[in-house]
Amino acid sequence: MVLGLGYLSPLAGVLLFSLVSGLALWIVLNFAPLSCAARLAVWASLAALTSVGGSQNGALLGSFIIGRLFVAETSPFLGGLILGLATVKPQLGLLVPFYWLAAERWRAAFGAAVAAGALIFLSLLLFPLSLWRDFLTDVLRYMAHLGEVLTGKTSDTPRAMIASSLSMARRLGAGAEGANIVQIFSSSLAIIGAIWLGRCQALPVRARLGGLLILGPLSAPYIWCYDMISASCGAVLLLVEFKPPSLLPSLFLGLAWIAPGVALYDAMFGIRSFMPLWLVAGFCTWFAAWHKQQTFNNKRFQPPGLHVKGKK
Fold first, then answer.
1. Cα gap 1→22, rounded to integer Å
2. Which segments of 154-273 does DSSP mark as H helices, in order?
3. pLDDT tens digits for 187-210?
4. How confident is the model at residue 307 (pLDDT cuts 50, 70, 90)?
5. pLDDT per position as a tens digit, 162-171
6. What is the largest CA-CA distance in the chain?
7. Three-class secondary structure assignment of 44-85
8. Residue in 227, 225, 217, 238 with CA at minimum distance from that of residue 273
9. How high is the pLDDT of residue 191?
10. What spatial distance separates the first Cα and last Cα of the chain, rounded to whole Å?
11. What are the residue ranges spanned by the domains of the chain?
12. Pick the residue with more confidence: 39 or 296?
């Protein structure tokens, strides 16, 4: 795809890539059980606008991330194949294997493994084997170094664009070791949440997928604000699932929807950005509100036989 765009002028190639990315995201959103207004809220989210406007790959890969989950509900193997395409940027979908295995979606997991294996095989056909060796020994090491440099800068501008818990901890003054501990805790929390969502059949499917998308950015140490489109979709899914909307979940999920687009400007004015915290607070307050409503409904509609006559 990149080679094909390279035959065009730089401006035409960039514009075409942005157009295709935005179109792919809109097409995929039609698989989600959302109203047109809710789809527009995802498609025009600040994370999506940042990605498309900056010609980043977040919208294109976000379409793979979002599409695979909803397609996998009806066509597990096809959904897994779509997930396999997203392995070109694996940090965006780290939680999905845990979710699928916990939910016993074996066909989806197998489809993802087939697609990822096919991409690796294709790369071995097209490029020399030394490319993989260089990637494992040089590129990964360089990217880890680059991540440490960006999150460790005294200027907030570069690291404000990184939406991970590690970056947030560095911005709050933590050292490299302390920030890594925070990230390990964040990743562990996200994995536990994904497994729980996979096993929790009480939650509606739309809510489970929304929760999974919201928790996704918490699992990766280096995820940029334009990669937050999936989290924006998760916020919208949770908001439309809970009726009537509650104040605290709406506030925190709204902040999660806004934060990717204003992170850079926050840094320019010296304002701290707490993107990971909005994700955690949004999901937790949403679940608390949902559970409270369900408890009320359960008490109101208890099946016969649970009460002893004459006693409460």
1. 16
2. 156-160, 165-171, 176-199, 205-215, 229-241, 247-268
3. 999 999 999 998 887 788 888 889
4. very low
5. 888 888 888 8
6. 83
7. CCHHHHHHHHCCCCHHHHHHHHHHHHHHHHHCHHHHHHHHHH
8. 225
9. 94
10. 68
11. 2-126+144-297
12. 39
Residue 184 has pLDDT above 90, yes or no: yes
Sign of CA dihedral 80, 82, 84, 87: negative
Residue 168: burial class (beta carbons within 10 Å; 0-12, 13-18, 19+): buried
Nearest-5° angle of CA 199, CA 300, CA 242?
Answer: 50
Angle between helices 58-74 and 229-241 (to 10 degrees): 40
Q: Are 153 and 167 in contact (CB under 8 A)?
A: no
246-263 core/surface letters (b: 16 or more CB in 10 A; e: else): beebbebbebbbbbbbbb
Closest-CA residue to 273 (of 144, 149, 158): 158
Cα–Cα dist 290/253, whole Å: 14
CB 253 within 8 A of CB 282: yes
The pair phi, psi for residue 224, each rounded to 5°, is -90, 160
- The reported pLDDT for the residue numbered 68 is 78
| Contact yes or no for 234/212 (Cβ under 8 A) | yes
pLDDT tens across 6-19, in order? Answer: 889 989 988 999 99
Rounded-to-integer distance, Cα 18 and Cα 51, Å: 8
Mean pLDDT along residues 20-33: 87
Average pLDDT score over the chain = 82
Rounded distance between C-alpha atoms, residue 163 and residue 225, angstroms: 6
What is the distance between the alpha carbons of residues 80 and 115, in angstroms, rounded to a whole number? 8
Residues ≥6 apart with Cβ < 8 Å to 270: 156
Task: Tabulate helix, strand, coil % of the chain (nearest 5).
Answer: 75, 0, 20
To the nearest 10 degrees (0 to 180), the angle between helices 58-74 and 46-53 is 130
Residue 254 has pLDDT above 70, yes or no: yes
- pLDDT for res 157: 63
